[in-house]
């Protein structure tokens, strides 16, 4: 199997005329899938202004008119399901069972918003002002921004971008999506599908490294999904323009194993929660805190369970390949950093082609990057703690956990953990918070 240096690259176009091109490379075998023009800031500006002009007609259609086009778009997605699933699998390296599920999530989100749009957008009835004796009445109405910008991730490049684009379209906004440069093809195909049904030109895609900042500088509202580091940049840039933004940022989901836990169930569940889809789920377990009394026993069971995920080679395996070769380097460096600082390698730890072996690290401490930086890879770092209080305290430390699971036979302890981590979702003896696919807001 050929290993690509990167999941994508940006190179000047032939003869150095025109914008550079994104070369999109298949993670599974390193072959070039396609080239995509990278948008310049001026091109992004023109795209956003065109969308802004078209949004006037789009809003004038009303909810019923917009739902008509969403329904036709849904039919297009269904009719082109096979091609979209294959394309998404090709550019992400995920098996088609995963990409089929991601497309299904997109269609379910579309159904959710088109079914409930009228209720969501209905204004509140006028009411008397709160001040005694005031003659005026108050009413609340919802008005869409002209253009909403969506900057999506490579982890779920279709579903997570569409979770943000669909409600904006239903509300009457035009939408421009800037997908990850590693996985731009499916979103580009979806935007072409929107145009092909004759829908108003209020949905478009831009690509390339310069496109993200340019979108931020032009749209009226920004929705970003990605790393906390990039999220800070997005928030500051939005604040400088005084436009609203909503950030869905990565972190390090955590599992806490207490001494009274069913260790067999905990080990099997935590292996699944951390290694499924190569740990590329935003909610995947990336930190495991275990009470000292059962640390050694649990670690042995976890290693056995991890071995069941097998080596990730060229053939069809349970875990598959990773989407980004560049990200494999990050995972490799986190493991290397941990080992240099005293962690013990119990299994895995090696990149094989475009895959990384399922890995379990023991004797991990907070000085190691594998505990302080998001991994998004098949690595389970296990930390020994003296008791439950210490585990909970460590689990609350930054970076924040998108979700937490607690493994204990004491229902009262589990209930207290739910309250302690609120509003973070908590699973008590339940791995579903970690393996559930993303859902729309």
Short summary:
The chain has 441 residues and is α/β, with parallel strands linked by helices. Helix content is 43%, strand content 20%.
SSE topology:
Layout: E1 8-11, E2 21-25, E3 32-37, H1 41-60, H2 62-79, H3 81-92, H4 96-121, E4 124-128, E5 137-140, E6 147-151, H5 159-171, E7 174-178, H6 185-196, E8 203-205, H7 211-216, E9 221-226, H8 228-241, E10 245-249, E11 253-257, H9 263-275, E12 285-291, H10 295-307, H11 325-340, E13 344-347, E14 351-352, E15 355-356, E16 359-362, H12 369-372, E17 379-385, H13 388-395, E18 404-407, H14 411-421, E19 426-428, H15 432-435
Parallel strand pairs: 6-7, 6-9, 7-8, 9-10, 11-12, 11-18, 12-17, 16-17, 18-19
Antiparallel strand pairs: 1-2, 2-3, 4-5, 13-16, 14-15
Helix pairs in contact: 2-4, 3-4, 3-6, 4-5, 9-10
Notes on the structure:
- With 441 residues, the chain is an alpha/beta fold.
- It has helices at residues 41-60, 62-79, 81-92, 96-121, 159-171, 185-196, 211-216, 228-241, 263-275, 295-307, 325-340, 369-372, 388-395, 411-421, 432-435; strands at 8-11, 21-25, 32-37, 124-128, 137-140, 147-151, 174-178, 203-205, 221-226, 245-249, 253-257, 285-291, 344-347, 351-352, 355-356, 359-362, 379-385, 404-407, 426-428.
- The protein has a 7-stranded mixed beta sheet with strand order 13-16-17-12-11-18-19, with helices on both faces. A 5-stranded parallel beta sheet has the order 8-7-6-9-10, sandwiched between helices.
- α3 runs antiparallel to α6.
- The longest helix is centred in the N-terminal third of the chain and has 26 residues, at 96-121.
- The radius of gyration is 23 Å and the shape is globular.
- Mean pLDDT is 89; it is low at 1-8 and 311-318.
